[in-house]
Amino acid sequence: MARARSPANTKPYAANPLKSSAPLGAALAFLGMDRCLPLLHGSQGCTAFALVLLVRHFREAIPLQTTAMNELTTILGGMDNVEEALGTIFQRAGPRLIGLISTALTETRGEDMVADLRAMRSRHPDWQTLDVVPVSAPDYHGALETGWSRAVTAMIETLTEPGDRTRSLRQVNLLPGSHLGPGDVDELRGVIEAFGLDPVVLPDLAGSLDGRVPDRYTPTTLGGTRSEDVRTLGRARLTIAVGEQMRAPAQALHRLCGVPFAVYDRLTGLDGADALVVKLAETSGVPVPPALRRDRSRLLDAMLDCHMTFAGKRVALAGDPDLLIALGALVAEMGATVIRVVASTPSPVLARLPAQAADVGDLDDLEQALATDPGGCDLLIANSHGQPIAQRLGMPLYRAGFPVTDRFGVPHRVTVGYRGTRSLLFDLANGLLAHGSGPCQEVCHDPFVAPAVAAH
């Protein structure tokens, strides 16, 4: 539990923004779908900004389209733009799925996308092979994980066959949060398959943004979860939701099809990994495989090796809530003190963070708090936008969250399960060791941790 709470943040502006918008999170969720093309219903600028961040973070070609609202269509209504965009995309790109995502522009006007989309389909019988999932994700509500959660919920409510209670003995649904990258999804898929279970992942970034070089150009996503797979989610024995943000999609599937679900705050750390393994063993009736037992033993050894490096260290974090609980709880378990947490959006998990102070704000709030803290800070965990703060205050930065634009391979990093936690501990401990060796010696070789720049 957090031992203290900061007063409510009443600052009327963001001096150094931390959060990414909900439409971007919704678009990211649709990028985990096969033959999909996200369509942002708003101005061109909204889509262009999201596209830049996604390309710089994943370093991949990102299919993203816009309805290109202007002043006139904003006043008179933009559904003509939507109908034209859907028709053009369907004819030229041939997607199987289009994610129609609202923005603050259209939400403020009050457009009813669901009703308008129903009318469009009646006028276009040739769209029968096209799935269109409308998502309400205004920029002014929530952050990246909010849009991700709403998109996954919308896909379940739109595509999953309601009332389907035919159970498959081997199928397990996996709903990963937006804080889990392709590397994490692949790791969790492997853990589930180790028990002889068949995971259906929604959405599956590991299938679409895994760094492959396609042999041909495609205007849509290549790989990921198929629409047909979403329709069969109701046949699973269990739904595993990772992160509080995925509680709403899991509940939606339970309402539709009665699939039982389990929500995990985190699968990073010994407790989180153990909880998942125990649940999978109970569900499958299969003993824990020897390979996983060995991975657990290796993690215990890594914790013993690193615990003196973390003991007494002071750590600050900034990011989306589900990322904060995963990393904050881990460093606290290792003996570090989480002195300050700044979240992008409110969430119930903030009350469970083992932090001295936690609130919702921006990176400017974090910098001001750290600059005036007499105890100092030994490690900052944030996205790439935290790098100037780390330099100014002379502390190492561990890059995590979205976006990470100045390091390679971050989306493919593994931070969950026994193996992922072990690698994460080594990265964090090496960053602390490098900082302790003196910021001017440039001894840090880890690609994700930047040596601090000393102020002379």
What does this structure look like?
With 456 residues, the chain is of the alpha/beta class. 43% of the residues lie in helices and 14% in strands. The chain has helices at residues 22-30, 44-58, 71-76, 79-92, 104-109, 113-123, 144-159, 182-193, 205-208, 227-231, 247-257, 270-284, 290-310, 321-333, 363-371, 387-393, 417-436, and strands at residues 36-41, 65-66, 97-102, 131-135, 171-176, 198-201, 238-242, 261-264, 314-319, 337-343, 358-360, 379-382, 397-399, 449-450. The strands form 3 sheets. The protein has a 6-stranded mixed β-sheet with strand order 11-10-9-12-13-14, with helices on both faces. Strands 2-1-3-4 form a 4-stranded parallel β-sheet, with helices on both faces. Helix 8 (182-193) links the parallel strand 5 and strand 6 (198-201). Helix 13 packs parallel to helix 17. The longest helix has 21 residues, at 290-310. It is globular. Mean pLDDT is 90; it is low at 1-7 and 437-456.
Mean pLDDT: 90
How helix-rich are the residues, as a percent range? 40-55%
The outline comes out as globular
Number of strands: 14
Please compute the radius of gyration using only Cα atoms. Answer: 22 Å
Low-pLDDT stretches are: 1-7, 437-456
Task: Please state how the strands of the largest beta sheet are arranged side by side.
Answer: 11-10-9-12-13-14
Describe the sheet with the most strands.
6 strands, mixed
- Strand residue content: 5-15%
Task: Note the gap between the termini.
Answer: 38 Å
Number of helices: 17
Based on helices, strands and strand pairing, what is the structural class?
A: alpha/beta
